[in-house]
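Entry type: protein chain
Record version: 2
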Amino acid sequence: HAERTSPVRVCNCQCRVRIEWASRSLLVMSTPGDVLSAWLEHVRQEGPQSVKNIVRDHLVSTVQSLLREKSLSDCCDPHDVSLTAPALRHHVIDSLDWFVCAGDPSECFARIRSCEAPPNLCGRSLKHGEPVYTCRDCGADGTCVLCSECFQRSAHRKHRYKMHTTGGGGFCDCGDEEAWKDGVRCEIHQPAVRELDVESSVPSGMSVRAYGVAEQCMRYAVDVLSWNMNDPLPLDLREDMDDYYVAVLVNDEVHSFDEVIHKMCGVLKCSSVQALQLATEVDRLGRTSVLIGSKSKCEEAKTEIKRGTLKKGRELRVDIIPALLLAHQECAIQLLQWLREIGTQCAVLRNLFCEVALKSPANNAVSGSMLGEVLSMDALLWKDARNACQQLFMR
């Protein structure tokens, strides 16, 4: 294919990939409600143990189908193997959401929350640009902040306070006794004064389904995020990709923006604006794909990118990854973010997720718990994946 002046990546896909995949069945577009009844019936017939197989098969087959669809429609698009968050949410996560709740998740979680006492700590993760408040009268120091919702329901709104926007990455300190001299909790996070019947609000079988879904999603995420380039992929994640790979530029915390931009312009023949977008994405996410095509093409690009970039004993790092694995890794990050999201909805799910994370496999005590595996691979992960793991398991 001819060179493209696309905004970020360069594609060198071979047409035979498109021809072979064209003969395969395309992804059947369906709503979460369409698959819910079939999954629930399968669990009823096969028993609760079938939840694990349903979830794993769903993750593997849907990601493969999405990637095929992407290749068929956008063979030369530079975003070819990037499965967007909305696509993964619609085709992968929404079905799991409905399956856990056996119906509309928004209605289910609203019913459960109405029967739960709010937590004594807020701990809300603050997003970039979100308004936060510090109390000059009661705060232990200037880093102790309240989210907007807690502030409006607290005594601090009548004190001397300061509002500013956060750079992201922090948490609301409402309920933290070490953060406040007075007015520790807002009205929302006061200790419960009555016993609440939470169990009756949980749909029948939800705990079993949620446990199976969480276990398989975490196992899947650990499998694909911890993959070593010298090891074969798990059997059910392998598929004939016909030499379909991605060259991925990884942030090494050594080379500057200007060095990366200069190299990308020279090797990829892209504009400085396009190269800046690549460098920005590497800095924000920890890595970005720069070339899509055969393994030999990606290896050639890797050699060219690394040439002449030795700095402090390091060259620019470029990994060659199977396109299907990259798609599974993108899905894994979205799954971890989703588990954290629904874990904040109710204590029942939070407790289940803790059980899953701390459970040690009976047949392999050496490997330890899933949380242990995540902690051991933390240093090997790129920024986006590490953040997703830490947000779910450690915060």
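Comment: The longest helix spans residues 50-73.
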